[in-house]
Known about the structure:
By secondary structure, the chain is mainly beta. It has one helix and eight strands; from the N terminus they run ββββαββββ.
Amino acid sequence: MTTQRGRDLLLKIGDGAEPEVFTTIAGLKAKTLAFNAGSIDVTNADSADGWRELMAGGVKSATLSGAGVFKDAASDAALRGAFFAGSAPNWQVVIPSFGTVEGPFRLTALQYDGPHDGEVKISLSLASAGALSFTAI
């Protein structure tokens, strides 16, 4: 994979319709997708020489975050709606020249910041709320 522009990494929120339509969260200047594969310790008195044992599979999770400038009423309304409903809509993360990660995420933090001499800024954090899929490009 060659070097990619950061602006081409996109966060999109689904509308829950069938077929689902995704809206790009406008104005985000920084976006992050992180995966975690937590282990489950199943060590017990019968573990060989007291060595730790881990359950196969473990617990998978992902987090999304973004920050930027408030720019688009449609994506802002979708974010606000998901936050106040406490829902976990489907999200897409488009990774340029790699693929798309899709699945349910709950919006765990939504922050607006507006200094008197600057633009309104937005920050968001999301946590996976179910199985995620990956589609390669």
